[in-house]
């Protein structure tokens, strides 16, 4: 039996970012992170495409992205440990959203909204697209939008390790164990029960269990609309160099970005069942992805699949956005779940916000109330059109 002020279930990017912020904002606070797999073999944070964008259609997601990119740029200072300055290889090469005639009006509206919220996103007509990206097939396109700053990709696993390392250095305790239950006193959680037989008593508990968040919520008798949905990331070799290649979001449904000399690509499968084993869907590459890639980027006709991996999106089937903050029915149980493909980039900001809420009872740096769990009770969805399946 140990006691902790805050006990966090899951030590992925969310749990570790929170542990970092809690012990930074309140040095000496007793924080315990319970993580069952210190190798993070199935954790989304280790299997992600680790990209960040400003091109959202909700004000809260844009604000989070603006704060997050600042953190990522300063990560070496923020997460330094004993003179070791982590490098996450942040590249700000932009996202390029593409639209055919039927989708162009919506993309144009999104760009206007982003610009009004301070995001540097340019509109590119087909002729400009062809000039800037000569390797792109533009015949069927009516519009593109390109992020000019604050968008790109980084080493996601590196960011996770840096958060966890710095959190430990600041005094957070990581326990290798599995949370199997909550002890309650009326509506309040009083302790985590562990598979080893141990217990961690706590003033506040946090569900940061990623794709397994629904099961953890169920341990407290709560239903959480978060599902583990498998996504395959394909590593593709293409002989031709694609000068200035950003992260491309194609209207056919795939995404693609450079990764060193190679490319990463993926798409949302349909149908999309829950809880598939984490084996990459290799057949879908030839049947679905390759033809779409080659249609948009003819150089990919000669591309080769080198390898692939699969991870789980922690998909919020209610409205595809993070569910953040205390639960109305169990006020000392916090949630950081359901980020639906944009959690890695939001973790630095969500971690800080949840830490502030736990310590002060309110958000201070950025109001994360629009992501509140209470929308499961009110039924009011947070509408975000730019969700990458
Ligand atoms: C293929 C893919 C591509 C993605 N691309 C992007 C992207 O480009 N940009 C972006 O921002 N996001 C992206 N995401 C999403 C992002 O990776 C996730 O939103 C984020 O990593 C979620 O972090 P987490 O800490 O909540 O979950 P996880 O990293 O899964 O961590 C949860 C941890 O909880 C532990 N755990 C669970 N239950 C228990 C328990 N009962 N007891 C103890 N430990 C437990 C698990 O072992 C796990 O380590 C992508 C995800 C995938 C799968």
Q: How are helices and strands ordered from N to C?
A: EHEEHHEHEHEEHEEEEHEEEEHEEEHH
Radius of gyration: 21 Å
What name is given to the CATH topology of the largest domain?
A: FAD/NAD(P)-binding domain
Beta-strand share of residues = 25-35%
Oligomer: single chain
Extended strand count: 18
Going by helix content, strand content and strand pairing, the class is alpha/beta
Helical content stands at 25-40%
Distinct ligands:
flavin-adenine dinucleotide
Reported CATH architecture of the largest domain = 3-Layer(bba) Sandwich
- Spatial gap, N to C terminus: 42 Å
SSE diagram, text form:
Layout: E1 2-9, H1 13-25, E2 31-35, E3 51-52, H2 59-73, H3 75-78, E4 95-99, H4 101-116, E5 121-124, H5 126-132, E6 143-147, E7 152-153, H6 156-169, E8 173-176, E9 179-185, E10 188-194, E11 199-207, H7 213-219, E12 226-237, E13 247-249, E14 254-259, E15 262-267, H8 283-296, E16 304-316, E17 323-327, E18 330-337, H9 343-360, H10 375-378
Parallel strand pairs: 1-2, 1-11, 2-8, 4-13, 11-18
Antiparallel strand pairs: 3-7, 4-6, 5-6, 9-10, 10-11, 12-15, 12-16, 13-14, 14-15, 17-18
Residues 9-15, 34-37, 40, 43-45, 47-51, 178-179, 208-212, 216, 231, 233, 311-314, 339, 341-345 line the site of flavin-adenine dinucleotide.
